[in-house]
Design the sequence.
């Protein structure tokens, strides 16, 4: 996919959660690579502002609910003619800290909806179309290093990001040989509003350096060009991932020590 004018030249691209942060950077980079872009965000003003930046189309709304996904895919298909690439980028953290285990069911349900079911619902709408016309498609999930390594703090965020990676893997296994390319973006600390609101976890998430959203978009485009499933803007995450898989007990013991240090510092209250 792609061409001499850009890696996404002429392609129809949708980016959810594109009103700011990583989503905005993905939308800008897709446009720079020659794509025609639909910008989705719950914040209609932000969606319209980014759409103006990229010369694209704003389709504000909820990209997680069944109704919202249907409306987005229909509107984007009308605007683009065909959706070639879908960046399932929207995500929320659900809060964290020492009381994360007591996160109410309704908050869990909302985080699952945005961080997992949004991907399932979008793929459910797009994959049959991609298979039917024989042209394939590309589905890109913005997950997190938390989906590979587990994150101290927010149980809903860590669990749902694991699920996001798991769904992307399943999608690749099931449809990868039939023309559906899948990627999972798994950054650590990125200078976004989510990192700024991370409180005592901000330093931990930035231990390997906090990247700019544009760095994540660069990594995504490189992975698309190279056909790699895992997008690791922080290359160190790959080393940690191997260590975790090789000796899980040792990995968990190390994470427990980090948790203890945070507890003893009073970082969580």
Sequence:
């Amino acid at each position: 996919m792609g061409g001499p004018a850009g890696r996404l030249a002429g392609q129809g691209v949708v980016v959810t959660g594109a009103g700011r942060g990583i989503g905005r950077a993905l939308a800008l980079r897709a446009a720079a690579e020659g794509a025609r872009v639909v910008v989705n965000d719950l914040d209609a003003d932000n969606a319209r502002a980014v759409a103006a930046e990229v010369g694209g189309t704003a389709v504000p709304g909820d990209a997680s609910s069944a109704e919202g996904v249907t409306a987005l895919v229909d509107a984007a298909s009308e605007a683009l003619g065909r959706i070639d690439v879908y960046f399932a980028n929207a995500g929320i953290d659900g809060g964290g800290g020492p009381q994360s285990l007591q996160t109410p069911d309704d908050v869990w349900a909302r985080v699952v909806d945005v961080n997992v079911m949004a991907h399932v619902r979008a793929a459910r709408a797009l994959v049959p179309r991609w298979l039917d016309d024989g042209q394939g498609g590309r589905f890109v999930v913005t997950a997190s290093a938390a989906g590979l390594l587990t994150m101290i703090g927010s149980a809903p965020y860590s669990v749902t990001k694991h699920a996001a990676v798991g769904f992307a893997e399943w999608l690749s296994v099931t449809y990868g040989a039939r023309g559906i390319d899948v990627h999972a973006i798994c950054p650590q600390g990125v200078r976004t509003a989510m990192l700024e609101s991370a409180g005592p976890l901000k330093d931990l998430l930035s231990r390997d350096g906090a990247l700019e959203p544009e760095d994540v978009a660069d990594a995504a485009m490189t992975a698309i060009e190279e056909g790699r499933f895992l997008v690791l803007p922080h290359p160190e995450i790959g080393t940690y991932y191997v260590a975790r898989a090789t000796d899980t007990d040792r990995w968990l013991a190390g994470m427990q020590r980090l948790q203890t240090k945070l507890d003893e510092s009073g970082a969580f209250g």
